[in-house]
């Protein structure tokens, strides 16, 4: 389903707030529990709101239950929300934990879409767990909320980081050690704040039957340290070109071996 103009339908869904209170007694006090009230809207996406993929730079298609995480900004507050796509009705439904203020004036928003590995576990229900192999797309845009049931969004999702893979023989493995590379990955997205938390970690990839490893997504924290260090049959290093590290760029490196590393631009690490 191409993302030209997406029209959404909605119904405001309200989860009742249950608050149990009781007078204290000599025996015990009753527990107090609250179910968070949620607000639901239909989102209409402007024609400009296409999804520019990191591979084709063109308009992509949404799949059923695709999710866009949103942060609505006004002069007074910030409200986070989640938009879920239905392929059956070709609509998105947005839910928030706070009510959006009716306004025909444009307000700002930020949006995140995660492609690939992501999960939410019971221990941290307000955190989306990401991995180095999660593609991240983001945008800053505008929205209006002229009626109780509808919001209108103008935005265009773009890749946030560069991505990279390795070419080699099927079954060949490569490891990027965290303390030898200055590469950061997006590891968590906090639903409450609408923020991404970066981190470093060891990363091991295996070449598949396509002759390539899976892609990983990241950025260099220090552009002065643009040295890539990998371990295959030995430890090798090479310089990464700055132009390869722009957001949205996609590139690969040939994996080094004892026989070919110099020809492929690698050096043995000291």
Describe the protein.
A seven-stranded mixed beta barrel has the order 1-4-3-2-5-6-7. It has a three-stranded antiparallel β-sheet with strand order 15-16-18, with no helix packed on it. It has a two-stranded antiparallel ribbon with strand order 10-13. By secondary structure, it is mainly β. It has strands at residues 39-45, 67-73, 78-86, 91-96, 103-119, 127-145, 150-154, 158-159, 162-167, 173-176, 183-190, 195-199, 203-206, 216-220, 227-231, 235-239, 250-254, 267-268. The protein contains no helices and 18 strands.
Radius of gyration: 23 Å
- Major sheet: order of its strands? 1-4-3-2-5-6-7
What share of residues are in beta strands?
Answer: 35-45%
Q: What is the helix tally? A: 0
Low-confidence stretches: 1-35, 52-59
Fraction of residues in H or I helices = under 10%
Alpha-beta classification:
mainly beta
Tell me about the largest β-sheet. Answer: 7 strands, mixed, barrel
- The end-to-end distance, rounded to whole angstroms, is 52 Å
Succession of helices and strands: EEEEEEEEEEEEEEEEEE
Instruction: Quote the average pLDDT.
Output: 81
Count every beta strand, where a strand is a DSSP E run of 2 or more residues: 18
Q: What does the overall shape look like?
A: elongated
């Amino acid at each position: 389903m191409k993302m030209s103009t997406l029209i959404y339908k909605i119904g405001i869904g309200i989860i009742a707030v249950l608050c149990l209170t009781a007078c204290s007694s000599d025996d015990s006090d009753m527990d107090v529990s609250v179910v968070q009230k949620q607000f639901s809207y239909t989102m209409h996406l402007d024609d400009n709101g296409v999804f520019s993929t990191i591979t084709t730079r063109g308009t992509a298609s949404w799949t059923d239950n695709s999710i866009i995480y949103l942060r609505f900004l006004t002069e007074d507050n910030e409200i986070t929300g989640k938009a879920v796509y239905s392929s059956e009705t070709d609509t998105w439904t947005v839910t928030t934990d706070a009510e959006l203020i009716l306004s025909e004036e444009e307000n700002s928003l930020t949006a995140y879409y995660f492609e690939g590995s992501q999960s939410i576990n019971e221990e941290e229900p307000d955190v989306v767990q990401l991995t180095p192999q999660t593609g991240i797309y983001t945008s800053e845009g505008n929205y209006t909320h002229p009626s109780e049931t509808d919001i209108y969004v103008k935005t265009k999702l773009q890749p946030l980081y560069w991505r990279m893979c390795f070419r080699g023989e099927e079954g060949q493995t490569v490891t990027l050690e965290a303390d030898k590379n200055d590469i950061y990955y997006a590891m968590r997205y906090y639903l409450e704040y609408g923020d991404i938390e970066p981190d470093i970690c060891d990363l091991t990839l295996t070449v598949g039957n396509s002759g390539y490893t899976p892609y990983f997504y990241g950025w260099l924290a220090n552009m002065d340290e643009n040295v890539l260090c990998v371990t295959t049959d030995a430890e090798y290093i090479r310089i990464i070109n700055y132009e390869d590290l722009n957001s949205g760029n996609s590139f690969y490196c040939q994996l080094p071996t004892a026989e070919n590393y110099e020809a492929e631009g690698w050096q043995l690490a000291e």
